[in-house]
Every structure is written in C-alpha cells, then in structure tokens.
Amino acid sequence: MPEERPFTREYVIYVTNRHMISQIDRSIRKTTARVSEFANNLEKSQEILETLSILHGMKRVLVDNSKNLRKSK
Predict the structure, then answer these.
(1) Is residue 15 a part of any domain in this protein?
(2) Most buried in the list 7, 19, 26, 31, measured by CB within 10 Å?
(3) Does some domain include residue 2?
(4) Is 73's pLDDT higher than 60?
C-alpha cells in the first residue's frame, strides 16, 4: 500500500503563490523584451506600458500575500 503523503493547505497555497509570481516575472521579461519592436508605434507602446503596470501590480499583490502566508505559520 502506498505511503500516505501529508497535506497542508499552507504549503499548497504557498507553492501556488510562488509559481504565480514566477509566471508573472516571465511575462514581465517577455513583454519588456518586445518594447523595442514597437518604438515607433505610440498606441502599442502605451499598451505595453499598461500591461507592464498591471503585471507589476499583480506581482505586488502576490508578494504581499506571500509575506502574510509566512507570518501566519
């Protein structure tokens, strides 16, 4: 019979939060890398900056949540 693995809600939420931050970082890097492609397109440049602003905001929320998760342990 397979050994039962322990389960903790905190660990699952922590790992999920960490993965989400990692994927947002990836999106920020990929989006930033494309900025030069649209240097002559004001509309697209503005869209990229708005996208980066939203991504940074999302990351800030997740990082703050991560800090709270660590405090609650």
Answers:
(1) yes
(2) 31
(3) no
(4) no
Return the closest-CA partner of residue 53 out of 20, 31, 34, 33: 31
Does the predicted TM-score (pTM) go above 0.90? no
| 67/14 Cα distance (integer angstroms) | 10
pLDDT tens, position by position, 27-50: 999 999 999 999 999 999 999 999
Split into its structural domains, the chain has a count of 1
| Cα–Cα dist 72/17, whole Å | 15
Distance CA 47, CA 9 (A): 37
The answer to whether residue 46 sits within a structural domain is yes
Measured CA to CA, the distance from residue 73 to residue 34 in angstroms comes to 40
